[in-house]
């Protein structure tokens, strides 16, 4: 009876974390690093199904964020010799965040959240109907 609620709840939590990571990436998109240091690296969310073993222990099915990893792709190098973080050659290393990809990720997270909210509301209506059947 509560399996659908638990499943939707796990997906809502995963969607929330997905959007938080994308928001953090956007917030750090224009950050730069001093010469010799690594700039902010874009974070990625990796989701997985809750394993049958975890389901047996917790009684929850659904999805979870299994890890948040750093994208080790190349950083943006921009020639700006007047920047305080420019190296000897005049290049500044910026975060490897693609704003278009992050905005898309935010929209995907929002759609995941909305879809699971709808599923949760549908489950609630079904439970209300079950209670009405029991009254007769």
Question: Could you give a short description of this structure?
Answer:
With 136 residues, this protein is α+β, with helices and mostly antiparallel strands.
Question: What descriptors fit this protein?
Answer:
alpha+beta, three-stranded antiparallel β-sheet, elongated
Number of helices: 3
Roughly how many Å apart are the termini?
20 Å
CA radius of gyration: 22 Å
The assigned structural class equals: alpha+beta
How would you characterize the largest beta sheet?
Answer: 3 strands, antiparallel
Side by side, the strands of the main sheet go 1-5-4
| Regions with little confidence, pLDDT below 50 for 5+ residues | none
Question: What is the molecular shape?
Answer: elongated
Q: Approximately how much helix is present in the residues?
A: 40-55%
The helix-strand sequence is HEEHEEEH
Strand count: 5
Q: What's the pLDDT, averaged over the residues? A: 89
State which percent range the strand residues make up: 15-25%
Task: Characterise the protein shown here.
- With 136 residues, the protein is of the alpha+beta class.
- It is built from 3 helices and 5 strands; from the N terminus they run αββαβββα.
- The chain has helices at 3-27, 52-58, 99-135; strands at residues 32-33, 43-49, 63-70, 76-79, 91-94.
- It has a 3-stranded antiparallel sheet, with no helix packed on it. The chain has a two-stranded antiparallel ribbon with strand order 2-3.
- Helix 1 packs antiparallel against helix 3.
- The protein is elongated, with a radius of gyration of 22 Å.
- The chain starts with a helix and ends with a helix.
